[in-house]
Amino acid sequence: xxxxxxxxxxxxxxxxxxxxxxxxxxxxxxxxxxxxxxxxxxxxxxxxxxxxxxxxxxxxxxxxxxxxxxxxxxxxxxxxxxxxxxxxxxxxxxxxxxxxxxxxxxxxxxxxxxxxxxxxxxxxxxxxxxxxxxxxxxxxxxxxxxxxxxxxxxxxxxxxxxxxxxxxxxxxxxxxxxxxxxxxxxxxxxxxxxxxxxxxxxxxxxxxxxxxxxxxxxxxxxxxxxxxxxxxxxxxxxxxxxxxxxxxxxxxxxxxxxxxxxxxxxxxxxxxxxxxxxxxxxxxxxxxxxx
Length: 291
Hints:
The chain is an alpha/beta fold and 291 residues long. It is 44% helix and 17% strand.
């Protein structure tokens, strides 16, 4: 029986190892790095959101191990379209756009700011305006934000109807597209009054971008559920867990986290539940905005 010389066997074994190594190296070289595609509704200027979100993107990349791509379109509906067509993995929705995306694409709620469980819309007018209540809006011009905004349209209109505000005010209202645009339209007397997000109002006044000597709040709505981060149907649970945990661990005692929380107008993040949005769904149906 002929035996294979040991030296030939070793050479053959070495060639196999080299081939396996080269094959593995080729596979790793061709494999694309994991990418997490995020999108946010443009509740303020889209360009500004993208610019100011870079520290958040860096933080999420570090916490999730994925390359994070953030897009902010020019209107709310585009975010719903994107996640429904699997062009986005996780999106930041308002309450109304969340229930739209849930109805259409089965998105899953992940986390939200603690304040989003008791959110409010503010009705503002000029400081010298005679408007002091919802009843005083009769015969006045009024501004909403985006038609798909929860705190800039859906809930303000809901509470206006509940208070029997003159239907003409709602029918003739203009849509400014974002909360900051509504605030500036009121401040510059382009409209008599408008409704907007309470967090954005607070941020604009604290940053001096909205002159408090020119505007005042004359009505605050009852609380409702609003903003939420949600994932597309079928997204890997390990990735959604890593994303959620990155927000849940944000601690105001940590200097880096404090800056992120300030940018996000948040003090704490908690897990979100779909059932919390049932009342908002009903408000959308009552307004004829959902079937």
